[in-house]
Protein backbone atom coordinates (compact mmCIF):
# COMPACT_ATOMS: atom_id res chain seq x y z
CA UNK A 1 0.00 0.00 0.00
CA UNK A 2 2.88 2.35 0.77
CA UNK A 3 4.28 1.86 -2.74
CA UNK A 4 0.89 2.79 -4.25
CA UNK A 5 0.80 5.99 -2.18
CA UNK A 6 4.26 6.95 -3.44
CA UNK A 7 3.15 6.52 -7.07
CA UNK A 8 -0.06 8.52 -6.46
CA UNK A 9 1.89 11.41 -4.93
CA UNK A 10 4.48 11.49 -7.74
CA UNK A 11 1.96 11.21 -10.61
CA UNK A 12 -0.47 13.82 -9.24
CA UNK A 13 2.23 16.09 -7.71
CA UNK A 14 0.66 16.06 -4.25
CA UNK A 15 2.64 17.57 -1.33
CA UNK A 16 4.21 15.03 0.99
CA UNK A 17 2.11 16.36 3.86
CA UNK A 18 -1.09 15.10 2.22
CA UNK A 19 -0.39 11.74 3.83
CA UNK A 20 -1.30 13.31 7.18
CA UNK A 21 -4.65 14.63 5.94
CA UNK A 22 -7.71 13.41 7.85
CA UNK A 23 -8.95 11.49 4.78
CA UNK A 24 -5.82 9.34 4.74
CA UNK A 25 -5.88 9.06 8.52
CA UNK A 26 -9.25 7.25 8.34
CA UNK A 27 -8.17 4.69 5.73
CA UNK A 28 -7.51 1.09 6.80
CA UNK A 29 -3.78 0.66 6.19
CA UNK A 30 -0.56 1.15 8.08
CA UNK A 31 0.12 4.85 8.70
CA UNK A 32 3.35 6.46 7.43
CA UNK A 33 4.79 9.92 7.94
CA UNK A 34 5.42 12.51 5.23
CA UNK A 35 9.17 12.13 5.87
CA UNK A 36 8.94 8.42 4.97
CA UNK A 37 6.96 9.19 1.81
CA UNK A 38 9.54 11.81 0.85
CA UNK A 39 12.41 9.32 1.21
CA UNK A 40 10.55 6.70 -0.84
CA UNK A 41 9.86 9.20 -3.63
CA UNK A 42 13.54 10.19 -3.66
CA UNK A 43 14.56 6.53 -3.89
CA UNK A 44 12.40 5.99 -6.98
CA UNK A 45 13.74 9.20 -8.52
CA UNK A 46 17.36 8.14 -8.03
CA UNK A 47 16.68 4.71 -9.52
CA UNK A 48 15.05 6.23 -12.62
CA UNK A 49 17.86 8.74 -12.94
CA UNK A 50 20.43 5.95 -12.90
CA UNK A 51 18.57 4.07 -15.66
CA UNK A 52 18.40 7.19 -17.80
CA UNK A 53 22.16 7.78 -17.44
CA UNK A 54 23.10 4.19 -18.38
CA UNK A 55 25.57 4.27 -21.29
CA UNK A 56 23.69 1.41 -22.94
CA UNK A 57 20.78 3.77 -23.66
CA UNK A 58 22.66 5.55 -26.40
CA UNK A 59 19.57 5.78 -28.59
CA UNK A 60 17.82 8.02 -26.07
CA UNK A 61 18.39 11.76 -25.80
CA UNK A 62 17.26 13.89 -22.87
CA UNK A 63 16.80 17.60 -22.35
CA UNK A 64 16.75 18.98 -18.82
CA UNK A 65 13.91 21.49 -18.52
CA UNK A 66 12.07 23.46 -15.86
CA UNK A 67 8.44 24.14 -16.79
CA UNK A 68 5.76 26.33 -15.30
CA UNK A 69 2.05 25.66 -15.80
CA UNK A 70 -1.21 27.58 -15.54
CA UNK A 71 -3.93 25.27 -14.26
CA UNK A 72 -3.73 21.52 -14.69
CA UNK A 73 -3.30 21.43 -18.47
CA UNK A 74 -1.86 24.60 -19.97
CA UNK A 75 1.90 25.19 -20.19
CA UNK A 76 2.94 28.76 -19.42
CA UNK A 77 6.72 28.76 -19.92
CA UNK A 78 9.70 26.45 -20.03
CA UNK A 79 13.29 27.15 -19.02
CA UNK A 80 16.34 25.42 -20.48
CA UNK A 81 20.01 26.20 -20.69
CA UNK A 82 20.84 28.84 -23.29
CA UNK A 83 22.63 26.45 -25.61
CA UNK A 84 22.00 26.77 -29.34
CA UNK A 85 21.53 23.00 -29.75
CA UNK A 86 18.43 23.22 -27.52
CA UNK A 87 16.60 25.55 -29.94
CA UNK A 88 15.57 22.75 -32.31
CA UNK A 89 14.18 20.61 -29.48
CA UNK A 90 12.13 23.52 -28.19
CA UNK A 91 10.84 24.37 -31.65
CA UNK A 92 9.62 20.80 -32.23
CA UNK A 93 8.02 20.69 -28.78
CA UNK A 94 6.26 24.03 -29.38
CA UNK A 95 4.93 22.92 -32.79
CA UNK A 96 3.51 19.74 -31.24
CA UNK A 97 1.80 21.61 -28.39
CA UNK A 98 0.40 24.57 -30.39
CA UNK A 99 -2.40 22.74 -32.26
CA UNK A 100 -3.77 21.32 -28.99
CA UNK A 101 -4.19 24.80 -27.49
CA UNK A 102 -2.03 23.94 -24.48
CA UNK A 103 0.19 27.03 -24.78
CA UNK A 104 -0.77 30.24 -22.98
CA UNK A 105 -1.11 33.18 -25.44
CA UNK A 106 -0.12 30.75 -28.21
CA UNK A 107 3.37 30.39 -26.78
CA UNK A 108 5.24 33.74 -26.97
CA UNK A 109 6.40 33.14 -23.37
CA UNK A 110 7.00 29.40 -23.92
CA UNK A 111 10.82 29.59 -23.96
CA UNK A 112 12.31 32.14 -21.57
CA UNK A 113 16.06 32.66 -21.77
CA UNK A 114 16.65 32.92 -18.09
CA UNK A 115 19.24 35.48 -17.07
CA UNK A 116 19.23 33.87 -13.64
CA UNK A 117 21.86 31.56 -15.13
CA UNK A 118 24.23 34.50 -15.18
CA UNK A 119 23.70 35.03 -11.47
CA UNK A 120 24.22 31.31 -10.91
CA UNK A 121 27.64 31.60 -12.52
CA UNK A 122 28.51 34.26 -9.98
CA UNK A 123 27.17 32.27 -7.05
CA UNK A 124 29.07 29.12 -8.03
CA UNK A 125 32.44 30.71 -7.35
CA UNK A 126 31.47 31.20 -3.67
CA UNK A 127 32.48 34.82 -3.66
CA UNK A 128 33.49 36.67 -0.52
CA UNK A 129 32.76 40.35 -0.96
CA UNK A 130 35.66 42.76 -0.77
CA UNK A 131 35.61 46.53 -1.08
CA UNK A 132 34.85 47.74 -4.64
CA UNK A 133 38.00 48.81 -6.48
CA UNK A 134 38.26 51.74 -8.88
CA UNK A 135 40.04 51.06 -12.17
CA UNK A 136 41.50 54.55 -12.11
CA UNK A 137 40.42 57.36 -9.92
CA UNK A 138 41.25 59.78 -12.74
CA UNK A 139 38.69 58.21 -15.14
CA UNK A 140 35.32 59.84 -14.56
CA UNK A 141 32.19 57.66 -14.42
CA UNK A 142 34.04 54.34 -14.86
CA UNK A 143 34.35 51.78 -12.06
CA UNK A 144 35.18 48.12 -11.55
CA UNK A 145 33.61 46.26 -8.65
CA UNK A 146 35.72 43.15 -8.03
CA UNK A 147 34.85 40.21 -5.79
CA UNK A 148 37.18 37.36 -4.85
CA UNK A 149 36.94 34.16 -2.84
CA UNK A 150 39.55 32.59 -0.62
CA UNK A 151 40.08 29.86 -3.24
CA UNK A 152 41.07 32.48 -5.82
CA UNK A 153 37.84 32.62 -7.82
CA UNK A 154 37.02 36.07 -9.13
CA UNK A 155 34.05 37.99 -10.56
CA UNK A 156 33.84 41.60 -11.70
CA UNK A 157 31.29 44.23 -12.68
CA UNK A 158 32.61 46.93 -15.05
CA UNK A 159 30.40 50.01 -14.99
CA UNK A 160 30.28 53.04 -17.29
CA UNK A 161 28.07 55.71 -15.68
CA UNK A 162 28.45 58.20 -18.53
CA UNK A 163 24.99 58.56 -20.18
CA UNK A 164 26.40 59.60 -23.58
CA UNK A 165 29.92 58.30 -24.26
CA UNK A 166 31.48 54.86 -24.71
CA UNK A 167 34.44 53.99 -22.49
CA UNK A 168 37.36 51.77 -23.48
CA UNK A 169 39.08 50.46 -20.35
CA UNK A 170 41.86 48.05 -19.47
CA UNK A 171 41.11 45.51 -16.77
CA UNK A 172 43.24 42.46 -16.00
CA UNK A 173 45.49 43.20 -19.01
CA UNK A 174 42.51 43.05 -21.36
CA UNK A 175 40.56 45.76 -23.17
CA UNK A 176 36.82 46.21 -22.73
CA UNK A 177 34.48 48.53 -24.62
CA UNK A 178 31.69 49.71 -22.30
CA UNK A 179 28.57 51.31 -23.87
CA UNK A 180 27.11 54.42 -22.21
CA UNK A 181 25.20 53.87 -18.98
CA UNK A 182 25.89 50.14 -18.81
CA UNK A 183 27.40 47.39 -16.66
CA UNK A 184 29.33 44.39 -17.99
CA UNK A 185 29.39 41.18 -15.96
CA UNK A 186 32.59 39.10 -15.95
CA UNK A 187 31.97 35.92 -13.87
CA UNK A 188 35.64 34.89 -14.16
CA UNK A 189 37.14 38.41 -14.29
CA UNK A 190 38.12 37.80 -17.94
CA UNK A 191 35.21 37.09 -20.27
CA UNK A 192 32.01 39.13 -20.58
CA UNK A 193 28.78 37.16 -20.26
CA UNK A 194 26.30 40.05 -20.16
CA UNK A 195 26.07 43.79 -20.76
CA UNK A 196 23.00 45.75 -19.75
CA UNK A 197 23.07 47.95 -22.89
CA UNK A 198 23.55 45.09 -25.38
CA UNK A 199 20.50 42.90 -24.98
CA UNK A 200 19.14 41.29 -28.13
CA UNK A 201 15.47 40.57 -28.59
CA UNK A 202 12.83 39.29 -30.98
CA UNK A 203 9.62 41.31 -30.95
CA UNK A 204 6.35 40.73 -32.76
CA UNK A 205 3.85 42.91 -34.62
CA UNK A 206 0.35 41.49 -34.23
CA UNK A 207 -2.48 41.80 -36.75
CA UNK A 208 -6.09 41.83 -35.55
CA UNK A 209 -8.57 40.52 -38.14
CA UNK A 210 -12.33 40.66 -37.62
CA UNK A 211 -13.95 37.23 -37.35
CA UNK A 212 -17.17 37.06 -39.39
CA UNK A 213 -20.16 36.08 -37.24
CA UNK A 214 -23.26 34.80 -38.98
CA UNK A 215 -25.94 37.44 -38.59
CA UNK A 216 -23.59 39.76 -36.68
CA UNK A 217 -23.98 40.67 -33.02
CA UNK A 218 -27.57 41.56 -32.18
CA UNK A 219 -27.59 43.52 -28.93
CA UNK A 220 -30.20 43.79 -26.19
CA UNK A 221 -30.13 46.39 -23.39
CA UNK A 222 -31.20 46.79 -19.77
CA UNK A 223 -31.03 50.21 -18.09
CA UNK A 224 -29.63 50.30 -14.56
CA UNK A 225 -31.77 52.03 -11.95
CA UNK A 226 -30.52 55.28 -10.39
CA UNK A 227 -32.78 55.14 -7.32
CA UNK A 228 -31.63 54.12 -3.85
CA UNK A 229 -34.84 52.46 -2.72
CA UNK A 230 -34.91 48.79 -1.82
CA UNK A 231 -34.09 46.32 0.93
CA UNK A 232 -30.39 47.11 0.84
CA UNK A 233 -30.75 50.90 1.12
CA UNK A 234 -30.38 52.94 4.30
CA UNK A 235 -30.50 56.63 5.28
CA UNK A 236 -28.21 58.59 7.60
CA UNK A 237 -27.37 62.23 8.22
CA UNK A 238 -24.13 63.23 6.54
CA UNK A 239 -21.66 61.53 4.20
CA UNK A 240 -20.08 58.10 4.65
CA UNK A 241 -16.67 56.84 3.56
CA UNK A 242 -17.18 54.35 0.73
CA UNK A 243 -14.92 51.42 1.69
CA UNK A 244 -16.39 51.26 5.19
CA UNK A 245 -19.93 51.53 3.83
CA UNK A 246 -19.63 48.85 1.13
CA UNK A 247 -17.49 46.40 3.13
CA UNK A 248 -15.99 45.37 -0.20
CA UNK A 249 -19.29 43.96 -1.45
CA UNK A 250 -19.17 46.17 -4.53
CA UNK A 251 -17.04 48.83 -6.21
CA UNK A 252 -20.13 51.04 -6.45
CA UNK A 253 -21.93 53.13 -3.81
CA UNK A 254 -24.97 55.34 -4.41
CA UNK A 255 -25.41 58.63 -2.51
CA UNK A 256 -28.88 60.20 -2.96
CA UNK A 257 -30.68 63.18 -1.48
CA UNK A 258 -33.60 65.48 -2.28
CA UNK A 259 -33.25 69.20 -2.95
CA UNK A 260 -36.36 71.38 -2.78
CA UNK A 261 -36.33 74.41 -5.12
CA UNK A 262 -38.69 77.32 -4.40
CA UNK A 263 -40.71 78.45 -7.45
CA UNK A 264 -39.50 82.01 -6.75
CA UNK A 265 -35.83 81.14 -7.39
CA UNK A 266 -34.25 83.68 -9.73
CA UNK A 267 -32.43 81.10 -11.91
CA UNK A 268 -35.79 79.67 -13.01
CA UNK A 269 -36.48 83.00 -14.76
CA UNK A 270 -33.05 84.17 -15.92
CA UNK A 271 -31.84 80.75 -17.10
CA UNK A 272 -28.56 80.89 -15.15
CA UNK A 273 -28.49 77.43 -13.62
CA UNK A 274 -27.02 76.89 -10.13
CA UNK A 275 -23.65 75.20 -9.69
CA UNK A 276 -23.33 71.89 -7.86
CA UNK A 277 -19.91 71.29 -6.28
CA UNK A 278 -18.97 67.82 -4.97
CA UNK A 279 -15.62 66.86 -3.42
CA UNK A 280 -14.72 63.17 -3.49
CA UNK A 281 -11.74 61.07 -2.35
CA UNK A 282 -11.95 59.09 -5.65
CA UNK A 283 -11.69 57.21 -7.84
CA UNK A 284 -14.58 58.21 -10.15
CA UNK A 285 -17.93 59.97 -9.77
CA UNK A 286 -21.06 59.98 -11.93
CA UNK A 287 -23.57 62.74 -11.11
CA UNK A 288 -27.27 62.28 -11.93
CA UNK A 289 -29.89 65.01 -11.60
CA UNK A 290 -33.47 63.70 -11.72
CA UNK A 291 -32.22 60.40 -13.21
CA UNK A 292 -30.31 62.15 -16.03
CA UNK A 293 -26.50 62.03 -16.22
CA UNK A 294 -25.15 65.51 -15.55
CA UNK A 295 -21.43 64.76 -15.65
CA UNK A 296 -18.55 62.40 -14.86
CA UNK A 297 -15.17 63.12 -13.28
CA UNK A 298 -12.13 60.94 -12.57
CA UNK A 299 -9.14 61.19 -10.30
CA UNK A 300 -5.59 60.61 -11.49
CA UNK A 301 -2.66 58.43 -10.49
CA UNK A 302 -0.95 61.40 -8.85
CA UNK A 303 -4.11 62.71 -7.18
CA UNK A 304 -7.08 60.35 -6.84
CA UNK A 305 -9.13 63.11 -5.17
CA UNK A 306 -11.57 64.80 -7.53
CA UNK A 307 -14.01 67.69 -7.68
CA UNK A 308 -17.22 67.96 -9.68
CA UNK A 309 -18.29 71.57 -10.17
CA UNK A 310 -20.79 72.12 -12.96
CA UNK A 311 -24.06 73.96 -13.54
CA UNK A 312 -27.05 71.66 -13.19
CA UNK A 313 -30.63 71.88 -14.42
CA UNK A 314 -33.09 71.95 -11.52
CA UNK A 315 -36.85 72.45 -11.56
CA UNK A 316 -39.28 73.95 -9.07
CA UNK A 317 -40.23 71.47 -6.37
CA UNK A 318 -38.38 68.30 -5.34
CA UNK A 319 -35.21 67.36 -7.27
CA UNK A 320 -33.33 64.08 -6.87
CA UNK A 321 -29.51 64.29 -6.72
CA UNK A 322 -27.88 60.86 -7.14
CA UNK A 323 -24.11 60.38 -6.95
CA UNK A 324 -22.57 57.07 -8.03
CA UNK A 325 -19.12 56.76 -6.53
CA UNK A 326 -16.78 54.23 -8.14
CA UNK A 327 -13.76 52.89 -6.24
CA UNK A 328 -12.04 51.17 -9.15
CA UNK A 329 -9.77 52.28 -11.97
CA UNK A 330 -6.78 53.63 -10.06
CA UNK A 331 -4.09 51.66 -8.15
CA UNK A 332 -5.18 50.28 -4.79
CA UNK A 333 -1.72 49.61 -3.40
CA UNK A 334 0.86 51.62 -1.50
CA UNK A 335 2.13 52.43 1.97
CA UNK A 336 -0.45 52.92 4.75
CA UNK A 337 -3.24 51.68 2.50
CA UNK A 338 -5.46 51.26 5.56
CA UNK A 339 -5.57 55.04 5.88
CA UNK A 340 -6.74 55.67 2.32
CA UNK A 341 -10.30 56.86 1.79
CA UNK A 342 -12.71 56.59 -1.12
CA UNK A 343 -16.10 57.98 -1.92
CA UNK A 344 -17.84 61.32 -1.44
CA UNK A 345 -16.60 62.95 1.76
CA UNK A 346 -17.71 66.48 0.95
CA UNK A 347 -18.33 69.25 1.25
CA UNK A 348 -21.26 69.32 -1.20
CA UNK A 349 -22.70 72.73 -2.01
CA UNK A 350 -25.27 74.25 -4.33
CA UNK A 351 -24.56 77.87 -5.26
CA UNK A 352 -26.46 80.40 -7.35
CA UNK A 353 -29.67 80.32 -5.30
CA UNK A 354 -31.55 83.27 -3.84
CA UNK A 355 -30.05 82.35 -0.47
CA UNK A 356 -26.56 82.28 -1.96
CA UNK A 357 -24.84 78.93 -1.24
CA UNK A 358 -26.67 75.96 0.25
CA UNK A 359 -24.61 73.30 2.10
CA UNK A 360 -25.94 69.81 1.38
CA UNK A 361 -23.24 67.95 3.32
CA UNK A 362 -25.14 67.41 6.57
CA UNK A 363 -28.64 66.79 5.34
CA UNK A 364 -30.11 63.28 5.11
CA UNK A 365 -28.53 61.02 2.48
CA UNK A 366 -29.80 57.66 1.30
CA UNK A 367 -27.26 54.94 0.46
CA UNK A 368 -27.33 51.82 -1.65
CA UNK A 369 -24.40 49.42 -2.00
CA UNK A 370 -23.83 48.12 -5.51
CA UNK A 371 -25.94 48.04 -8.65
CA UNK A 372 -29.21 46.27 -9.29
CA UNK A 373 -27.63 44.41 -12.20
CA UNK A 374 -24.94 43.10 -9.86
CA UNK A 375 -27.55 41.84 -7.40
CA UNK A 376 -29.43 40.11 -10.24
CA UNK A 377 -26.19 38.60 -11.65
CA UNK A 378 -27.08 39.85 -15.11
CA UNK A 379 -23.66 38.75 -16.37
CA UNK A 380 -24.45 35.07 -15.63
CA UNK A 381 -26.30 32.57 -17.79
CA UNK A 382 -29.19 32.29 -15.32
CA UNK A 383 -29.32 35.93 -14.18
CA UNK A 384 -29.48 37.32 -17.71
CA UNK A 385 -32.84 35.62 -18.15
CA UNK A 386 -34.37 37.13 -14.99
CA UNK A 387 -35.23 40.54 -16.48
CA UNK A 388 -36.83 41.85 -19.65
CA UNK A 389 -34.30 43.29 -22.10
CA UNK A 390 -34.89 46.04 -24.64
CA UNK A 391 -34.08 45.09 -28.22
CA UNK A 392 -34.15 46.39 -31.77
CA UNK A 393 -34.60 50.15 -32.18
CA UNK A 394 -35.18 50.50 -28.40
CA UNK A 395 -31.49 49.78 -27.71
CA UNK A 396 -29.86 53.16 -27.09
CA UNK A 397 -26.23 53.95 -27.83
CA UNK A 398 -24.03 56.19 -25.68
CA UNK A 399 -26.37 55.58 -22.74
CA UNK A 400 -24.74 55.53 -19.26
CA UNK A 401 -25.36 52.76 -16.70
CA UNK A 402 -26.56 50.26 -19.29
CA UNK A 403 -26.21 46.48 -19.50
CA UNK A 404 -25.86 44.96 -22.97
CA UNK A 405 -26.03 41.32 -23.98
CA UNK A 406 -25.79 39.25 -27.15
CA UNK A 407 -25.01 35.68 -28.20
CA UNK A 408 -22.67 34.27 -30.82
CA UNK A 409 -21.31 30.95 -32.06
CA UNK A 410 -17.65 30.04 -31.62
CA UNK A 411 -15.60 30.48 -34.81
CA UNK A 412 -13.68 27.57 -36.27
CA UNK A 413 -9.94 27.18 -35.77
CA UNK A 414 -7.53 27.49 -32.86
CA UNK A 415 -6.12 30.96 -33.56
CA UNK A 416 -6.12 33.28 -30.50
CA UNK A 417 -9.30 35.37 -30.19
CA UNK A 418 -9.98 38.76 -28.60
CA UNK A 419 -12.72 41.37 -28.24
CA UNK A 420 -12.17 44.83 -29.72
CA UNK A 421 -13.59 47.20 -27.07
CA UNK A 422 -12.42 50.51 -28.58
CA UNK A 423 -15.97 51.85 -29.04
CA UNK A 424 -16.92 51.48 -25.36
CA UNK A 425 -16.40 53.95 -22.49
CA UNK A 426 -15.80 52.33 -19.10
CA UNK A 427 -17.15 49.14 -17.59
CA UNK A 428 -16.74 45.39 -17.47
CA UNK A 429 -17.21 42.48 -19.92
CA UNK A 430 -18.16 38.82 -19.39
CA UNK A 431 -18.37 35.75 -21.62
CA UNK A 432 -20.54 32.87 -20.41
CA UNK A 433 -20.44 34.30 -16.89
CA UNK A 434 -16.62 34.56 -16.83
CA UNK A 435 -15.14 38.06 -16.48
CA UNK A 436 -12.74 39.10 -19.24
CA UNK A 437 -11.84 42.16 -17.19
CA UNK A 438 -12.61 45.85 -16.80
CA UNK A 439 -12.30 48.15 -19.78
CA UNK A 440 -11.71 51.91 -19.93
CA UNK A 441 -10.94 52.96 -23.53
CA UNK A 442 -12.41 56.42 -22.85
CA UNK A 443 -9.42 57.23 -20.64
CA UNK A 444 -6.48 58.17 -22.88
CA UNK A 445 -2.86 58.21 -21.80
CA UNK A 446 -1.23 61.64 -21.66
CA UNK A 447 2.42 62.54 -22.19
CA UNK A 448 4.78 62.67 -25.13
CA UNK A 449 6.17 59.59 -26.85
CA UNK A 450 9.41 60.60 -28.49
CA UNK A 451 12.71 58.91 -29.24
CA UNK A 452 13.52 56.29 -26.60
CA UNK A 453 16.99 56.22 -25.04
CA UNK A 454 17.38 54.36 -21.77
CA UNK A 455 20.78 55.89 -21.00
CA UNK A 456 20.72 58.16 -17.99
CA UNK A 457 18.69 58.15 -14.80
CA UNK A 458 15.32 56.51 -15.33
CA UNK A 459 11.95 58.08 -14.51
CA UNK A 460 8.35 57.10 -15.27
CA UNK A 461 8.12 59.56 -18.19
CA UNK A 462 11.11 58.07 -20.00
CA UNK A 463 10.54 55.85 -23.04
CA UNK A 464 6.77 56.15 -22.81
CA UNK A 465 4.64 54.35 -25.38
CA UNK A 466 1.05 54.48 -26.66
CA UNK A 467 0.63 58.17 -25.80
CA UNK A 468 -2.87 59.38 -26.60
CA UNK A 469 -4.23 55.82 -26.56
CA UNK A 470 -6.18 53.70 -24.09
CA UNK A 471 -4.24 51.41 -21.80
CA UNK A 472 -6.01 48.40 -23.36
CA UNK A 473 -8.19 47.83 -26.41
CA UNK A 474 -8.05 44.06 -27.05
CA UNK A 475 -9.36 41.57 -24.47
CA UNK A 476 -8.25 37.94 -24.84
CA UNK A 477 -11.03 35.36 -25.19
CA UNK A 478 -9.91 31.87 -24.08
CA UNK A 479 -11.11 29.09 -26.38
CA UNK A 480 -11.81 26.96 -23.30
CA UNK A 481 -14.52 29.43 -22.23
CA UNK A 482 -16.46 29.08 -25.49
CA UNK A 483 -19.21 26.66 -26.42
CA UNK A 484 -19.84 25.63 -30.03
CA UNK A 485 -23.06 27.70 -30.11
CA UNK A 486 -24.95 30.22 -28.01
CA UNK A 487 -22.10 31.97 -26.18
CA UNK A 488 -23.38 34.76 -23.91
CA UNK A 489 -21.55 38.11 -24.12
CA UNK A 490 -22.52 40.73 -21.50
CA UNK A 491 -21.25 44.31 -21.13
CA UNK A 492 -21.86 46.79 -18.33
CA UNK A 493 -21.25 50.33 -19.55
CA UNK A 494 -20.87 53.13 -16.99
CA UNK A 495 -20.49 56.31 -19.02
CA UNK A 496 -21.92 55.51 -22.45
CA UNK A 497 -20.43 53.49 -25.31
CA UNK A 498 -21.50 52.00 -28.62
CA UNK A 499 -21.82 48.18 -28.47
CA UNK A 500 -22.21 48.08 -32.26
CA UNK A 501 -18.49 48.83 -32.44
CA UNK A 502 -17.52 45.70 -30.45
CA UNK A 503 -16.03 42.96 -32.66
CA UNK A 504 -14.59 39.49 -32.21
CA UNK A 505 -11.12 39.43 -33.79
CA UNK A 506 -8.43 36.85 -34.54
CA UNK A 507 -4.85 37.58 -33.51
CA UNK A 508 -2.17 36.66 -36.06
CA UNK A 509 1.53 37.40 -36.23
CA UNK A 510 1.98 40.02 -38.94
CA UNK A 511 5.76 40.43 -38.68
CA UNK A 512 8.70 39.50 -36.45
CA UNK A 513 11.66 41.71 -35.63
CA UNK A 514 15.11 41.23 -34.15
CA UNK A 515 17.57 43.75 -32.69
CA UNK A 516 21.08 42.35 -32.19
CA UNK A 517 24.16 44.35 -31.23
CA UNK A 518 27.58 43.71 -32.72
CA UNK A 519 29.72 41.71 -30.28
CA UNK A 520 26.70 41.27 -28.04
CA UNK A 521 27.74 39.04 -25.09
CA UNK A 522 25.96 35.72 -24.68
CA UNK A 523 26.25 32.55 -22.63
CA UNK A 524 27.38 30.39 -25.57
CA UNK A 525 30.30 32.71 -26.25
CA UNK A 526 31.20 32.91 -22.57
CA UNK A 527 31.21 29.13 -22.09
CA UNK A 528 33.33 28.52 -25.20
CA UNK A 529 35.84 31.19 -24.17
CA UNK A 530 36.00 29.98 -20.58
CA UNK A 531 36.60 26.38 -21.68
CA UNK A 532 39.38 27.45 -24.05
CA UNK A 533 37.59 26.30 -27.21
CA UNK A 534 37.86 29.79 -28.71
CA UNK A 535 39.93 32.83 -27.85
CA UNK A 536 37.77 35.58 -29.32
CA UNK A 537 34.08 36.16 -28.54
CA UNK A 538 31.61 34.22 -30.67
CA UNK A 539 29.54 36.39 -33.00
CA UNK A 540 25.86 36.66 -31.97
CA UNK A 541 23.03 35.47 -34.22
CA UNK A 542 19.70 36.97 -35.21
CA UNK A 543 16.81 34.52 -34.75
CA UNK A 544 13.50 35.00 -36.59
CA UNK A 545 10.54 32.69 -36.03
CA UNK A 546 6.94 33.02 -37.28
CA UNK A 547 3.84 31.56 -35.65
CA UNK A 548 2.56 28.00 -36.11
CA UNK A 549 1.65 27.33 -39.73
CA UNK A 550 3.28 30.57 -40.95
CA UNK A 551 6.35 31.20 -43.08
CA UNK A 552 8.50 34.26 -43.78
CA UNK A 553 7.20 35.72 -47.04
CA UNK A 554 9.38 38.82 -47.36
CA UNK A 555 11.89 41.04 -45.59
CA UNK A 556 10.35 44.43 -44.84
CA UNK A 557 13.48 46.01 -43.35
CA UNK A 558 17.08 45.07 -42.65
CA UNK A 559 19.97 47.29 -41.69
CA UNK A 560 23.39 46.51 -40.22
CA UNK A 561 24.88 49.78 -38.99
CA UNK A 562 23.13 52.40 -36.89
CA UNK A 563 19.40 51.84 -37.56
CA UNK A 564 16.85 53.72 -35.44
CA UNK A 565 13.24 53.14 -34.46
CA UNK A 566 11.40 50.09 -33.22
CA UNK A 567 9.60 47.09 -34.68
CA UNK A 568 7.19 48.31 -37.34
CA UNK A 569 8.87 51.73 -37.58
CA UNK A 570 12.52 51.06 -38.40
CA UNK A 571 14.55 53.40 -40.59
CA UNK A 572 18.16 53.56 -41.69
CA UNK A 573 20.65 55.60 -39.71
CA UNK A 574 23.76 57.43 -40.87
CA UNK A 575 25.59 54.11 -41.22
CA UNK A 576 24.08 51.27 -43.27
CA UNK A 577 25.49 48.15 -44.94
CA UNK A 578 24.01 48.02 -48.44
CA UNK A 579 23.88 44.21 -48.46
CA UNK A 580 21.91 44.02 -45.21
CA UNK A 581 18.94 42.38 -46.97
CA UNK A 582 20.86 39.74 -48.89
CA UNK A 583 21.52 37.19 -46.12
CA UNK A 584 17.91 37.30 -44.94
CA UNK A 585 16.50 37.03 -48.48
CA UNK A 586 18.65 33.94 -49.01
CA UNK A 587 18.28 32.17 -45.64
CA UNK A 588 14.84 33.22 -44.38
CA UNK A 589 12.26 33.79 -47.13
CA UNK A 590 10.09 30.69 -47.44
CA UNK A 591 11.16 29.33 -44.04
CA UNK A 592 9.20 29.22 -40.78
CA UNK A 593 12.36 30.22 -38.88
CA UNK A 594 15.95 31.15 -39.63
CA UNK A 595 19.18 32.42 -38.09
CA UNK A 596 21.77 34.83 -39.48
CA UNK A 597 25.16 35.56 -37.91
CA UNK A 598 25.71 39.24 -37.12
CA UNK A 599 29.09 39.89 -38.74
CA UNK A 600 30.29 42.60 -41.18
CA UNK A 601 31.39 39.90 -43.66
CA UNK A 602 27.81 38.63 -43.93
CA UNK A 603 26.56 42.08 -44.96
CA UNK A 604 29.26 43.01 -47.44
CA UNK A 605 31.87 44.52 -45.12
CA UNK A 606 32.09 47.02 -42.30
CA UNK A 607 30.03 50.08 -43.31
CA UNK A 608 31.53 52.34 -40.62
CA UNK A 609 34.74 51.17 -38.86
CA UNK A 610 35.31 52.20 -35.24
CA UNK A 611 31.54 52.66 -34.74
CA UNK A 612 29.54 50.30 -32.54
CA UNK A 613 26.91 48.77 -34.84
CA UNK A 614 23.76 46.74 -34.48
CA UNK A 615 21.40 44.81 -36.73
CA UNK A 616 17.67 45.55 -36.97
CA UNK A 617 15.47 43.36 -39.17
CA UNK A 618 11.73 42.93 -39.74
CA UNK A 619 10.26 39.95 -41.60
CA UNK A 620 6.65 39.54 -42.80
CA UNK A 621 4.90 36.30 -41.76
CA UNK A 622 2.04 34.80 -43.80
From TrEMBL:
Using the record, list the residue span of the signal peptide; answer none if the entry has no such feature.
none
Describe the family membership recorded for this protein in Swiss-Prot or TrEMBL: Belongs to the glycosyl hydrolase 35 family.
Catalytic activity reads: Hydrolysis of terminal non-reducing beta-D-galactose residues in beta-D-galactosides
Superkingdom per UniProt: Eukaryota
Q: What is its EC number?
A: 3.2.1.23
Keyword set includes Ubl conjugation: no
PANTHER family for the chain: BETA-GALACTOSIDASE RELATED
Which GO biological-process labels does this protein carry?
Answer: carbohydrate metabolic process
Signal keyword on record: yes
Molecular function (GO) terms for this protein are: beta-galactosidase activity; carbohydrate binding
**Record keywords:** Glycosidase, Hydrolase, Signal
What's a single GO CC term here? plant-type cell wall
Its source organism is Cajanus cajan
Protein's UniProt name? beta-galactosidase
* SUEL-type lectin domain residues: 536-622
Amino acid sequence: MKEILVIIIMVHEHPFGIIEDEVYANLKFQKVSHQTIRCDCLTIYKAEKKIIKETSNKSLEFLKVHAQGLGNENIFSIFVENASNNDLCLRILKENLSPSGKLILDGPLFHVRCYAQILNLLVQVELDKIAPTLIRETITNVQAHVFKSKSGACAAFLANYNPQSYATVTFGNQHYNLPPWSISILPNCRHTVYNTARVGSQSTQMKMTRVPIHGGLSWKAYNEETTTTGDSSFTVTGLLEQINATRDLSDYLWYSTDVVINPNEGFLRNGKNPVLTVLSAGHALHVFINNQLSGTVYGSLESPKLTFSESVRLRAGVNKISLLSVAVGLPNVGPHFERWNAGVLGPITLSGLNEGKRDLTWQKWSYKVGLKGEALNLHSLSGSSSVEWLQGYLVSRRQPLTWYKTTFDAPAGVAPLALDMASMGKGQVWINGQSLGRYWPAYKASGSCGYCNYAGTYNEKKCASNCGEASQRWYHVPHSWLKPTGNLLVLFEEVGGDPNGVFLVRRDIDSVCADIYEWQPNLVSYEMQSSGKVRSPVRPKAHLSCGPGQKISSIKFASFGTPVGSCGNYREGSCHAHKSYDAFQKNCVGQSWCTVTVSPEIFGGDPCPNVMKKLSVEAICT
